[in-house]
Specification:
Layout: E1 2-8, E2 13-19, E3 31-39, E4 42-50, E5 57-64, H1 66-82, E6 95-100, E7 111-112, H2 115-123, H3 132-146, E8 152-156, H4 166-169, H5 175-181, H6 190-204, E9 213-218, E10 222-228, E11 231-235, H7 257-266, H8 270-279, H9 282-287, H10 293-303, H11 306-329, E12 336-340, H12 341-346, H13 348-357, H14 367-371, E13 379-380, E14 389-392, H15 397-416
Parallel strand pairs: 1-6, 6-8, 9-12, 12-14
Antiparallel strand pairs: 1-2, 2-3, 3-4, 4-5, 7-8, 9-10, 10-11, 13-14
Bound molecules: adenosine-5'-diphosphate (ADP).
Amino acid sequence: MIILVLNCGSSSIKFQVIETDKQESSANPNVCLVKGQAETLGADCKIKYEVPEQEAVKISVPAGSIEYCIETVLLWVFSDISGVERVNGYQDIDAVGHRVVHGGENFKQSTLINQTVIEAIEACAELAPLHNPANIQGIRHMTSLLGPQIPQVAVFDTAFHATMPEQAYMYGLPYEYYQRYKIRRYGFHGTSHRYIAHQYQALTGLSKKRINLISLHLGNGCSACAIRAGDSIDTSMGFTPLEGLLMGTRSGDIDPSILEYLHHREGMGFDQLDNMLNKQSGLLGVSGLTSDMRTLLKEESDNEDPRARLAIDIFCRRVCRYVASYYVGMQGKADALVFTAGIGENSASIRQRICTGLECLGVHLDEQLNSGEISESGSKISSLESAIDVYVIPTNEEGMIARDTARYIKTAEENESPE
Ligand code: ADP
């Protein structure tokens, strides 16, 4: 089945065309046919399109709306799948899978999109004002281009965390705000954490009820997730993706009273405070240099920059704190710690620093495995005596979206076919 995976954000679109069930024997049966992205939507938009093992095609457009970028991308996609320039129809694609950031309390799993679902996603837009409107724009535009005959599936970032118990998702605020406005913790990066659980299961051959692990998604955005019997039972992001770990530009946990204090001292309004917490804090804010972990590590080692070191130290300490609290929450029954995303997959030194902080839990890395090559399907990097296995598993959110989409279409077809 050929699935177009679309991730429409407020300022960028990412896409992949994935052929599912292509390599049946492999841990990852999906094959990416083309992928790319459009960045800085609006003014001076840059669109990049890559066919594996070919040079990427890049263009700049002076004003690229979501709609324009989707159409440009589709023309490329179809000329490549069909080998013909500017194919008139979109018949090559079997279905579209959309990443949708917020599913609120309504969506506990991926869902076939229809008008009612669009309206329900729209109703969640207040909870994710930057993301859900762009997701809906993408869905609506795809519907107008492809027509109703090509099914579309919404895969929610929040859905995997729908299994969190009440005591993990409720804040210590007056209960009426939950009743009135659904203020609670939702958690994000769910598709990535779900992929990690799925891939760990494939690597170990364990049954779902024996999947007990702590997943660490460490990229620009960062979150930790406690997974028991294959389900999310706690995660570090909350009502929004701001809570929890220190991130590239997001503060993660702070004492909320700081906001009121800054309002009085600096005259900062809500928009400024929100911008400071989301865009000027985290690694960038502490270091005063950059949100990019690679650069910070280099500054620390080449120039002994004290604030680069401080930012990295806070980053690692925060991860250890969350791992320790989940470990206790799981009554010590976490069998594995899994690193993923840009920092988690690529930085042996950050993994080392975090695992050194967890030595009291019996976590020990094998230095050679940690600094060696990581397999696409995931590699174990802990030593034999480690009490908890440590893995690096490269995340694949697009693959997971394609898999969910293909599964929905197959189920729908099976239900329709006569006995
Ligand atoms: P996003 O959350 O935007 O998808 P990524 O998962 O790509 O981001 O992660 C980006 C982060 O990964 C950046 O901080 C980048 O510096 C970091 N990163 C990528 N490669 C390395 C590396 N080799 N060493 C350290 N950090 C890395």
